[in-house]
């Protein structure tokens, strides 16, 4: 594998099967260095498995690639030493104190000058006074901040965050994203999986995965164009009744409601224009640029929940 | 993949494990407290040679011979006379409700018939629902009666006595002259205590990482599986050493169990036994998905360890198939080794057979465990 100077992650054809079921199917992805890359998809779509294969925690059944220039099949140890991986569930030791947890992780990575590094991290977190508190007694938001600090303790070049904000309150989520942007500005590449749309919008690049297959990927702002969605913004009276009628129309791929506003989207622009002309009534129809929000609702409605069956 | 073992990471896992062990008060207390309690309870409570069993007498006749027999029974310490049956059916009732283990029935005209040489029968009714309880006492009856007769039927009456056998039999209870049950139970207990704590604690400690999700954190670090295993298991080996030390001190101080054999033989055997139990715990951890399951499976292995290893019941008394199962249990061989070393003064060459048996079991368990571990790695 030749070292890829542009990309932190570059994989092709990744495939993983668990007892006969294909969980990830022929997956390609390029994550540019220094980017915040959003990894989206419904539950069970294979996000976690893909992340694990990319950082050498799981061996793919097929495919190849490099992470930080190291082969994901043969150089897992080198990758692990340079990657920070934050799991979906809090997975530090609840029966160790905050300091003990950080110290343990630092020892695992053989962090130089360990003691001062741990003390420094505690100060950055604002947890110096509570260093002796058991990690299990922290609130959800604090646990997540501690987990982030723990996976940053060895100064990784790449951060893999697996649904880091699941079950965390909005304020803590905002703070968390501030932190992520700070790290990204400092040159750390961040790959983050999520199913919150407001988080996806903060990413530079996005990949959408469903049923173990990548449906789309690219620069976040270009995703709606790539899907080819045209959207109308509809306001006015009796919007609920209109919504029901619009759903039955073939030209309409989706109707998303934002308060008193309907966003009506379709992939066939001409058909949608014709519909808009036909439907004009008491409501006001305005052509608008399709945004990431519509794009995601569109993608998600296509691939509801991957546990519900249906082969891809 | 190259094999590199980082002492730094191993020590980190080790010290983390010690901190967790210290925080988990109940488990910590159990590790030391349970062995002591078991030693005290089993050591003092279990007695396979029961004495002073409640006995009733139904006397249809009375005389010097009867009195001699009864007093002979009482002085044997096997029987404790609770009283005399007065009405019909009272003896049966006492046996049935358990207030008496024995009812001794002296038939009518017993004294006269003895003197006439009619060989009358004394009936000793025993509660057979508990063979162990009555076995010793029932076995001692003929001897007691012979002694009583010999003392009473002297002079002209001697013809009525049973002629003595032309030879004598002396049973020499080697290694345990007083037949103390504790000398049998206590050394065997070490096998049970170590089996119980080592298997369960190892299985639970490993499964815990997976169940709490912390294994994910571990595998995302550069730590090697061997470092995790060694770091997690080493503290429990130490626990095994502490348990054994406590055991040896208490066995000597409270039960007077001697240690007559070679310390080297003991040391080799017990280290091997600890390792085999850790391997078994490791195997269980590859099967169990939760700490609860690990505990249940560990308990499942504990029962045969107690019942089929020869700890509670004589190994030789079991049918062939049960002996086969028993031979596959490491505790069977370890408790033989401990008994040999502590009581019989064995040295390493005497226990080589047991050592090899444990080694074989270890090989089999490790092979299965490693296979299963590889499968569950991904």
TrEMBL record, chain A:
It holds the Pfam family ABC_tran. GO terms for molecular function: ATP binding; ATP hydrolysis activity. It comes from the Bacteria. SMART domains: AAA. InterPro entries: AAA+_ATPase, ABC_transporter-like_ATP-bd, ABC_transporter-like_CS, P-loop_NTPase. Keywords: ATP-binding, Nucleotide-binding. Residues 9-236 form the ABC transporter domain. This is ABC transporter ATP-binding protein. The lineage of its organism: Bacteria, Pseudomonadati, Pseudomonadota, Alphaproteobacteria, Rhodobacterales.
TrEMBL record, chain B:
Its main location: membrane. One of its GO terms (molecular function) is ABC-type transporter activity. The keyword Transport applies. It is found in: Cell membrane. It is a multi-pass membrane protein. Keywords: Cell membrane, Membrane, Transmembrane, Transmembrane helix, Transport. One of its GO terms (cellular component) is plasma membrane. Signal peptide: none annotated. Residues 147-376 form the ABC transmembrane type-2 domain. The chain crosses the membrane at residues 26-46, 185-207, 233-255, 261-285, 297-317, 351-370. Gene3D superfamilies: abc type-2 transporter like domain. The keyword GTP-binding does not apply. Belongs to the ABC-2 integral membrane protein family. This is Mannose-1-phosphate guanyltransferase.
